[in-house]
Structures are given as C-alpha cells and as structure tokens.
Amino acid sequence: MVIIMEDNATEQQVQIVTDKIKALGFEVHRSDGKERTVLGAVGEKRGIDKRDLELLAGVREVVAITKAYKLASREFHHEDTILQIGDVKIGGDNIVIMAGPCAVESKELLFTTAELLVKNGAQIIRGGAFKPRTSPYSFQGLGEEGLKYLREAGDKYKLAVVSEVMDVSQIKMMLNYVDIFQVGARNMQNFWLLKELGKIRKPILLKRGMSATIEEWLMAAEYIMSGGNYQVILCERGIRTFENYTRNTLDLSAIPVIQKLSHLPVIVDPSHATGRRDKVLPMARASIAAGAHGLMIEIHPKPDQALSDGAQSLYPDQFSELMDELRIIAKAVKKTI
Ligand code: PEP
Ligand code: MN
C-alpha cells in the first residue's frame, strides 16, 4: 500500500502519517519525488481500513500495490531512480559503462585496463576477486588481494569499483574496497545474502538469475530494498533457453518491461549473455538502443591469456571502437554517455 501525500504536505503531516502507519503494524519506506512524497507501508499485516489513513491531513490518496514487489515498483517511486557514486550517475538519461576483466588476475592487468577505460570514457572498473566458477578446479580469484588492486586502480584513475560478493561473510571486508557490490546470477535468490545487503548503504548491482522471471528478479531487488537499501541496479545478463549457440540468450525485451514496472536503473551485460566476443559488440549496441542505462562488459588486454572468460572478453581496440559507436547511439536515444 502506498500513501501519496499532497504536493504541499508539510513535514509534520508526513510525520503524523508515518507514525500512524507504524502504529498499524507496517514498516514505512519513504520516497521523496520531485513533486510529492510517497510513503510505502510494507508488512504482513492485512485487513486495515484505508480510510484511517485517507482522512489524515496532507494525504492525497491511498493506493494498494497489487504487485508482489512494492518498493521496486513504479507505483512507489514514479520517477526513474538515479544513483550517484562520486561524479557518476546511474539511471535516468545517463549511460554508464562498467568494464574490466572477468577476474582480477594481477595488479598490472588492472592498471592497464583502468588506463584503457579512462582513455575511452568508461566510468566504472569491474573485476571478480571471488569467482563463481562451474568447476572447482578453475581459477577461483585472488580474494582480498584482488580487491586491493581494484581499489588502487580505481583511486589512481578516478574510477568507481564494482566486484562480486558471493557470501555474507565477505560483506564487511568488501566495504573497504568496493563502491558497488555485484550479486551474481547464481546468487540472485540467495535471500540471506540479499537481506544482509539490504542493511548496508552502498549500491548493489543485481544480476538476473539465469532462469529467473522478471518478477522473481524484481522480488530479489525487493529483498534488498526492504532492508532500507534502495540503491539497486538491475543487470540483464542473458537467460538460459533451448538455444545453445550463444552462452545464454540475451532478453533485450526485459529492458522496456523493467522500465515500465520499476524505477530502478537497468543495465546489460552482453559478455555473459553471448559468451562470444564477436557477438558482444552488436548486442551492446542493441542494448543501448533499447534503452538500457548502461553496460557491463568484459575486456582484457590479452584475452587469449585470460584466466577466465577469455572468449567473451573484448580486445582493447574493439572496446574503443564500441565506445565510439555508443556515443552515436546514445545521442540518437537522447542519453548522455
Ligand atoms: C561475472 O560478471 O563475472 C559473472 C560471473 O557474471 P554472472 O553472475 O552474470 O554469470
Ligand atoms: Mn565472467
């Protein structure tokens, strides 16, 4: 249920409504839009009389949100959410580019990559320090050492840092190094992890599970938001279908669907979606044309020597070429890159 306040409602009126919602046994989540404040009443308790709230001063309307996700829905927050990380904006009319190797392999690799990012106007460096590999015998990542390299590269080149968190036990340590916590496809429904990430106040990049419906994905976002962390970025990274020519099937239609249902920024990872570098470029272009708020792309100075996902990692020249193309596409769709 959302309580939409009048445009000119006073802070005191908002407070009285907030107290009333709490007294009715709900949790209150507040969204201050450009024009008006919306209060979300979320909780298990049912069967309340809407009029108890409708009649309070400053209340314009009380609307039941019929969807299972509430805080992630457009009903709760009408305008696009725009996250701000330093100078970087994610959401709205902004396009953000996150790029880097699949795994942090060495300090040198990250510094070379960071230079390439800056040269081409990307804003966020990625790299896995904890890797969710299909085989236990594959490279598992450098752990905290890898996060240190990421932070050093981020600080030196003024890039924000995103890296995957795999387990609740890693959150506290990772807070020292990352600007954005990535939740991988395999963990999208790790509800305990999502709940813990709801307690922190840093952005979460939530990848779509490989067999998750859009509603399940939004419910995963809701888990994080219900803890009070509203800074969620959704990332479409391909889903598993009967088609096996590409690693996954990129669900481009998820972009406009999400944008209708939710206010959260949605970006695309064409690397894991296709698994082949020659297919990454066209799908990256298509994603921006379809309205994505950004991309997460795997790049490597020497993809043939990469310890993971080399086949889907772009060569530096391909990345530069793509960035040039994206600037043209961004302009066509009236976005800033
Ligand atoms: C990754 O980004 O390196 C990754 C493992 O992605 P996903 O969780 O989408 O497979
Ligand atoms: Mn990868």
Walk me through this protein's architecture.
The chain is α/β, with parallel strands linked by helices. The chain contains 11 helices and 14 strands. The strands form 3 sheets. Strands 13-12-11-10-9-8-7-14 form an 8-stranded parallel beta sheet. Strand 8, helix 4 and strand 9 form a beta-alpha-beta unit.
Strand content: 15-25%
Described by the principal axes of the CA atoms, the overall outline is: elongated
Helical proportion?
25-40%
Number of strands: 14
| CATH homologous superfamily label of the largest domain | Aldolase class I
Overall tally of domains:
2
CATH topology of the largest domain: TIM Barrel
Neighbour order of strands in the largest sheet: 13-12-11-10-9-8-7-14
The gyration radius over C-alpha positions equals 21 Å
SS summary, helix count:
11
Specify the structural class: alpha/beta
The averaged pLDDT comes out at 95
Q: What's the CATH C level of the largest domain?
A: Alpha Beta
Please report the distance between the alpha carbons of the first and last residues. 36 Å
Q: What small molecules does the structure contain? A: phosphoenolpyruvate, manganese (II) ion
SSE succession? EHEEHEEEEHEHEHEHEHEHEHHEH
Q: Uncertain spans, ≥5 residues at pLDDT below 50? A: none
CATH architecture level-2 label of the largest domain: Alpha-Beta Barrel
Task: Please describe the biggest sheet, giving its number of strands, its sense, and whether it closes into a barrel.
Answer: 8 strands, parallel
